[in-house]
Amino acid sequence: MTENVIKRIVNMEKSNPSIFLKIDMICSSPANSSLLSARLIMQALSISFNKLKIDERLCVFEFYQSLSSINKLNDVFYSFLCVGHNPAFAIASDHLSNSNIVDLPTAAWLKVQFNQNQWSKVENVKLTLGLPKEILK
Fold first, then answer.
1. Which residues contact 74 (CB under 8 A, 6 or more apart)?
2. Which helix (H) or strand (E) is 36 found in, with range?
3. C-alpha atoms less than 13 angstroms from C-alpha of 1 in its C-beta half-sphere
4. Domain count, the chain
5. The domain spanning residue 18 has which CATH number?
6. Across the chain, what does the average pLDDT equal?
7. Residue 86 has pLDDT above 80, yes or no
8. Angstrom distance (rounded) from CA 71 to CA 118
9. Residue 75 pLDDT more than 80?
10. Which residue of 1, 23, 54, 132 has the fewest CB atoms within a 10 Å radius of its CB?
11. Euclidean distance between CA atoms 99 and 97, whole angstroms
């Protein structure tokens, strides 16, 4: 990961601290780039490393695996941050919201809001997209 990418990740999180308040858990794929991104985010926002969970289902390119990871979360969690670098996140987000997200560039974030009380029933979500080219002008 280049120094510019690291700076972009940290600056995106610091530019949007309200998006990351009250995070109950951070899920990351075991890929080195995802783990480094998660660590950078946690350090930038002073989030405890005890909240990190590594999930191999986030490392695959099948969006159903990413959805499965979300659907199997314990309902005691109110919010979570999912860190990964693959097209499955964009496809899963599109599937959940019927949006037209084609690509999530490095350091981009998606805030997903929904009215259900159970992770297993997540659908019809409202998405807010944070893109580096718009936020870090």
1. 119
2. helix 32-44
3. 19
4. 1
5. 3.40.50.1240
6. 79
7. no
8. 8
9. no
10. 1
11. 5
Task: Report pTM.
Answer: 0.75
Q: What pLDDT score was predicted for residue 117?
A: 81
Range of the domain at 116: 3-135
- Residue type at position 124: N
Tokens representing 78? 């109110």
Report the alpha-carbon distance of residue 104 to residue 107 in Å, rounded: 8
Alpha-carbon distance of 130 to 107, in angstroms, equals 9
Q: What is the mean pLDDT of residues 58-86?
A: 71
Query: What's the token pair of residue 57?
Result: 């289902």
Query: Comparing 47 with 81, which gets the higher pLDDT?
Result: 47
b/e code 55-79 from CB counts within 10 Å (16+ = b): bebbbbeebebbbebbeebeeeeee
